[in-house]
Amino acid sequence: MTTPYRIVLCTWPADRSPLELAGRLVESGLAACVNVVPGITSVYRWQDRVAQDGEQLLLIKTREDAIPGLEKAILHAHPYELPELVAVAIESGLEDYLDWMEKNIK
């Protein structure tokens, strides 16, 4: 059974800090936690060419009903024309952790 919790994946340029955005997401209750994973390389097609860039991956722990506000906040702050925003359902998890998430998402 799927829970109401989601992990939102969002890439961010390697040469810019996402920490201000991550802090705002947690402070506002749109996310319980944001992990910043540095040092990834993305290979993708953009404007009819294959591109390769250094990026960081944001793993944003949230609830499904918070995603519209989360998307709005990310789109406002993100430097990309088309940022990656992909939500993945959390099928199950440690009950105490999920309870903690619930208490920290408004």
Automatic annotation (TrEMBL):
A Pfam family that the UniProt record links to this protein: CutA1
GO molecular function, one term: copper ion binding
Gene Ontology biological-process entries: response to metal ion
Signal sequence region: none
SUPFAM superfamilies assigned to the protein according to its UniProt record, in alphabetical order: GlnB-like (SSF54913)
Family: Belongs to the CutA family.
Protein name: Periplasmic divalent cation tolerance protein
